[in-house]
Design brief:
single chain, about 290 residues, mainly alpha, about 80% helix, globular
Length: about 290
C-alpha cells in the first residue's frame, strides 16, 4: 500500500505545475499564488491534526520560530517566482531549473551547515546541472525568443529561494515536528502572498478571475496538498530510501503532461538532459 501512496505523491506533485499553468493563462500569477496558498494551508494544518502535533506549538523556541518564519518567506518568494516563470515560459524549461535547487542546496549546506561533500554527491550535482543546461538549450527554446529571458530569471530565482527554504527549514525544524513546521511556514507564505497582491494593487483582479482558471488554480492547490498527504502516508509504512526517489520522479509526470496538455515536446538534447536530471536525482536520493 505504501508504494501506491509514494506513486500518488509523485503523480500529484507532477500535475501541480500543469494545473497551475492552466489557471494562469489570463490570471495574474501573484493572484493565483495567493488563492492556491489558501488550499495548501488547509492541507498543511490538516496534516498537523492527523499527526496530533499541534500541541508542540507552545514549545517552539524563539530561534526556531524565527527560522521557520524566514523559511516561510523564502518559500513564498520561491512560489511567487515559480508561478510567474510558468506564466511566461514553457513548463519543460521552467521545471528543470526549479529542480536544480537540489544542486544549490548541496552547495549552501556545504557552506553554512558544514555538511560534507562526497564523490557521489559531486557526480549527482554534475548530472543535474548538465541535464538542466541541456533542457534549456536556447536554440530549441522558441518561447524564450518570443518573451525574452524574463521567465528564466524568475525560474532561477525560484530555485535560489527554494534552496534557502531548505537550509533555513533545516535549522527551523530542530526539535519540531516537520508537519507542524510546514504548517507554520505555509501560514507565513499565505500572509506574504496576500500582502504582495495588496501592495501591487492587484486586489481587484481577484473579482475578474475566470471561473475556469479559478478552478484550475484551486485544483493545483489540492494537488499540492494531496501530494503532501500521500508522501506522509508512504513514509509512515515504507522505506524512505525508496519513497524519496519515487517522489522526486514527479518531473517525469510533469514533462509527460506538458506534452499531452500543451504539446510541449522534448528534442534530442532535452531528452538527454532529462535523463541526466533523473539519474542525478536518483543517485543522490539513494546515497
Amino acid at each position: 500500500m505504501w508504494l501506491l501512496y509514494a506513486v500518488g505523491s509523485s503523480f500529484f506533485a507532477g500535475i501541480t505545475s500543469i494545473l497551475a499553468k492552466c489557471g494562469i493563462k489570463k490570471t495574474d500569477s501573484d493572484v493565483a499564488t495567493a488563492i492556491r496558498t489558501i488550499v495548501v494551508l488547509l492541507f498543511s494544518w490538516l496534516m498537523v491534526l492527523i499527526t496530533g502535533t499541534g500541541g508542540q506549538t507552545t514549545q517552539i523556541s524563539g530561534k526556531t520560530f524565527l527560522f521557520l518564519v524566514l523559511s516561510g518567506l523564502a518559500t513564498g518568494a520561491s512560489w511567487l517566482c515559480y508561478f510567474h516563470a510558468l506564466q511566461k515560459g514553457d513548463i519543460n524549461k521552467v521545471v528543470p531549473i526549479d529542480k536544480s535547487s537540489t544542486v544549490l542546496t548541496i552547495l549552501l549546506a556545504l557552506i553554512f551547515l558544514h555538511e560534507g561533500i562526497t564523490v557521489p554527491k559531486i557526480i549527482s550535482v554534475v548530472l543535474i546541472g548538465a541535464g538542466t543546461l541541456l533542457m534549456i538549450d536556447k536554440k530549441q527554446d522558441s518561447k524564450a525568443q518570443a518573451t525574452g529571458k524574463e521567465w528564466m530569471i524568475y525560474a532561477v530565482l525560484s530555485a535560489v529561494f527554494a534552496s534557502l527554504t531548505a537550509i533555513l527549514g533545516k535549522v527551523g525544524i530542530e526539535g519540531v515536528d516537520s508537519n507542524l513546521g510546514t504548517a507554520i511556514r505555509t501560514t507565513v507564505v499565505l500572509v506574504m502572498a496576500w500582502l504582495m497582491v495588496m501592495v501591487k494593487g492587484k486586489w481587484q483582479q481577484i473579482k475578474t478571475v475566470e471561473k475556469k482558471e479559478f478552478a484550475f488554480v484551486m485544483l493545483s492547490g489540492l494537488a499540492t496538498g494531496a501530494s503532501w498527504l500521500c508522501y506522509y502516508r508512504a513514509l509512515q509504512t515504507g522505506q524512505a530510501s525508496v519513497v524519496v526517489p519515487i517522489d522526486k520522479l514527479s518531473i517525469l509526470v510533469t514533462i509527460a503532461f506538458s506534452w499531452i496538455v500543451f504539446r510541449e515536446k522534448l528534442f534530442g538534447k532535452a531528452v538527454l538532459g532529462l535523463i541526466g536530471i533523473v539519474a542525478g536525482t536518483l543517485w543522490l536520493a539513494l546515497l
